[in-house]
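Fig. S4 source data, part A: sequence.
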Amino acid sequence: KKKVAAKGKKSMLKFTVDCQQPSDDNIIEPKDLEKFFNNRIKVEGKTGNLGDKVSVSRDKAKIHVSAEAPFSKRYLKYLSKKYLKMQQLRDFLRVVAPSKTSYELRYFNINED
């Protein structure tokens, strides 16, 4: 019986969405984005079905999402962009991946000359 439990351990995926820059400028509230993720992330095709498969936590301006595989990082990007669109910030902020397991919200570089 113990072998089955060890075998059934799903790989946990951890992703981070860092909204340091905009939250420093009081443009977005990280807790609102966290709430948005909690309400919008779908598990098995249903929202509000996070259960113990997906957990969303926040550490100051970083939002951590840990999920059992299958969960795509791209889905977080999609949801982040949806949130920015809802707040009408898509023209000012973009979602960039600084590393393999994280995204951050950055401003568009307007003056690059």
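Fig. S4 source data, part B ends here. Residues 1-8 have pLDDT under 50 and may be disordered.
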